[in-house]
Each structure stands twice: as C-alpha cells, then as structure tokens.
Specification:
Rossmann fold; seven-stranded parallel beta sheet; 8 helices; binds adenosine-5'-triphosphate; binds magnesium ion
C-alpha cells in the first residue's frame, strides 16, 4: 500500500505522522523535504529516499509499501505520489488561516484523487470540533484526531513508533496509550479499503 501525507502548509505534522506510520507499519519513506539528522538516523537506509532537488518521482509497484511525506505547492512529483497512493492524508491544526489554506488544498488534491482523509493534529480540548466544523462546511471526508503529545517528538529520541513505546510498558506506555489508539483508528481505516 501507499499513502501520501501532504499539506502545502508547513509545520502541520506531516513528517511526524509519516514517521509514526512508517515505523508502525514497516513502510518505506520517500520525501521531497530535507530531513534533519535525528530523523534520518532512525529510518533504515534501504527504507528511505530523500529526493534531490530536481529528481523525478518513480511510480513504484503495488507490492512496495511506501509513505510519501511531501510538502510544498503541488508539482509533478506530488501528483505522481498522489496518483500511486491508496490514500492522501492531510494533516491540519486548529489555526484559522491554516484551515482556510487547507480547504483550498483539498480542492486541488481531489482533482487528482478523492481518497482523502484529514488528520486534525496537535489537538487540545475543543480543537477537533472546530476543525470538523470548518472542514465539513466544504467536504465530507473522514477526519481523524491526533492529540497534542510529546510522544510524536519522542519518536526520534527513542527511535521507535508510538506503538513500540506503548508495548514496552511503564510510564511511557501509560502516557502514549491514547495517542496510539488514535493512530490505530486511522490505520484501521486506511488498511480496510
Ligand atoms: N501531535 C503532536 N503533538 C505535539 N507536537 C507535534 C505533534 N505533531 C507534530 N508536532 C511537532 O510540531 C512540529 C512540526 O511537525 P512536523 O515537522 O512533523 O511538521 P511538518 O508538516 O512535517 O513540517 P515541515 O513543513 O517543516 O516539514 C515538530 O516540532 C513536531 O514535533
Ligand atoms: Mg516535514
């Protein structure tokens, strides 16, 4: 399977979501961004491609499992990623301008592929409802929640997925259980279709 995590907006959590999905599902990652060393370090070399500035994106066979972590305006590479993906995951946080921008971006994505899910990311009390309200004025795509948590930042420190941290037990397991369950919900949905 292939998933594209995409929003033209920066800082919405694309890379953290892509990383946790890739580590949990044992998928490769292909990105058009420049990953910081701490991120590079935790992905095996044979599971990771950082595209060079003008490097085109290939279309990979169906049996290869990939997460595309793509930012920036829609270009040929992003179109190629979206076209070969089963789902496009669009992270957004509860910020008015960002939500407006995301509503426009979804329109561009759906011209390429209609298998879209929105991830309301970094949520605190009330954020999910506000994001749902803004998005559902325009679209009926499913909206999943990923709450605000240190867990996503700790992926690079620990070098493992949220699920692996939870499975280790102890204090982290307790703190990240709800976060892991939110990812489970998203993953179950993505894999069902
Ligand atoms: N659910 C979350 N809870 C807490 N912090 C988060 C969450 N998701 C992301 N972050 C933090 O927000 C920041 C931006 O996340 P990330 O780098 O994944 O976004 P991005 O969309 O890939 O950004 P860029 O456009 O720079 O590539 C990071 O510091 C990350 O640790
Ligand atoms: Mg990123």
């Amino acid at each position: 399977m292939k998933f594209t995590v995409y929003n033209y907006k920066g800082g919405v959590g694309k890379t953290r979501i892509a990383l946790n999905l890739a580590l949990t599902l044992d998928f490769a990652i292909i990105t058009n961004e420049i990953y910081i060393p701490t991120i590079k370090k935790i992905i095996p070399d044979n599971k990771y491609i950082q595209l060079e500035k003008n490097q085109a994106l290939e279309t990979y066979p169906d049996e290869i499992d990939i997460i595309f972590d793509f930012g920036g305006g829609i270009d040929q590479r992003i179109i190629t990623a979206i076209k070969q993906s089963n789902w496009v995951i669009v992270p957004v946080t509860n910020d008015h301008d960002e939500l407006e921008a995301t509503i426009n971006i979804i329109q561009e994505i759906e011209d390429i592929k209609k298998n879209i899910v929105v991830v309301a990311n970094r949520t605190a009390q009330g954020d999910l409802e506000e994001i749902k309200k803004a998005i559902s004025k325009h679209y009926s795509y499913p909206i999943f929640e990923v709450k605000k948590s240190k867990g996503l930042r700790n992926i690079t420190k620990e070098g493992k997925s949220i699920k692996a941290m939870v499975e280790e037990g102890g204090l982290k397991a307790h703190s990240y259980k709800a976060l892991d369950q939110q990812f489970d919900k998203l993953i179950n949905f993505l894999k069902k279709v």
